[in-house]
Amino acid sequence: PDGKPADMAKPVQVFILMGQSNMLGKGRITGGEGSLENAVKNKHLYSFLVDDAGNWSERKDVRFVRYMSGKGPINNEWLRVGKGTIGPEYGIAHPLGNAIDAPVMILKCCIGNRSLGWDLLPPGSGSYEFEGKIYPGYKGSPDSWVKGTEPKPISWYAGKQYDDDTADAKKALADLGKHYPGATKFEVAGFFFWQGEKDCGNAAHATKYEENLVRFIKRLRQDFSAPKAKFVLATLGESEKGGGGNGGKVLDAQLAVDGAAGKH
C-alpha cells in the first residue's frame, strides 16, 4: 500500500462479493502450518499484509463490509486482518486499492451451503422438467416435486438467498456514510462470485448452471444499475475440464461465460 488516502471527490467504487462457503471464507488466521500468520510472519509471504513493525497493516482507502442473511454489519471497518477466519477479500482488496485512486469498498454478502439452481436462483428464472421431476422457477417452492403431483411449498423458496444477499448489499449502500465514513456517492464497479460446489450434487442444477449463471450476471447488473460492471468468477478447483459428470458440467458452464474464450 502506498499509504495515500482515497480521493474522496470520487464516488466509492463498490465491489460486491457473493457465493457460498468458499467466498464466505474458512481460512485460519492464527496457528501453525496452513495459517495466515505462519505464512506471513514465518515464511515471509504476502508482506503487504503487515507494516514495518510486523503488525497487521490497516488501509485507510479500502473499507471491508460484510453482511450475512440479514445479519450485520458483521464487519464494517478499514481493511485489516482481524480475528476468526478470513476469505478471499484480502487477495481481492489490496490489488484493487493499489490500482484505484477513488475510495474502495469490498461488500461481501453471502453464506455457505447455497446453490445457484435453488437458493441463489435469480429473478426471471422459470420452472422446468428434468428426469420426471418439476423444478421451480424464481420464488417457487419446494425445490422439486414429481411431475403430475401437487407441490407442497416449504418455508424456503427458489431465489431466497439471492433476495437476502442483494437486500443486504442494498441496505449497506443506502446508508453509505455509515459504511464508508465521509462518502456521499458510490457506483457498483464489479462483482466477484465463488460458488458451484452445491450444484454439483444435483444433476438438474448442474445441467441448468450455464443458463442460470448468465441470467444471474445480467440480473445483478440490472438490480444494481451497473450495466458495465465487471463480473469475476472463480471456477471449481476440484473439477477438471472435460472431466464429465456434474462437476464437469458446472465447470464447463463457468468457462462458457469467459469474456475472452467463452460463448457469452
Instruction: State mean pLDDT (0 to 100 scale).
Output: 95
Order of secondary-structure elements: EHEHEEEHEEEEHHEHHEH
Largest sheet: 6 strands, mixed
The protein's oligomeric status is single chain
Poorly predicted runs = none
Strand percentage lies at 15-25%
The N- to C-terminal Cα distance equals 35 Å
Give the beta-strand count.
11
Q: Output the structural class.
A: alpha/beta
Strand arrangement across the biggest beta sheet: 4-3-6-1-10-11
Helix share, percent: 25-40%
Shape: globular
Return Rg in Å.
20 Å
Number of helices: 8
Tell me about this structure.
28% of the residues lie in helices and 21% in strands. It is of the alpha/beta class and 264 residues long. The strands form three sheets. Strands 4-3-6-1-10-11 form a six-stranded mixed β-sheet, sandwiched between helices. It has a three-stranded antiparallel β-sheet with strand order 7-8-9, with no helix packed on it. Strand 7 (128-130) and strand 8 (133-135) form a beta hairpin. The protein is globular. The two termini are 35 Å apart. The model has no long low-confidence stretch (mean pLDDT 95).
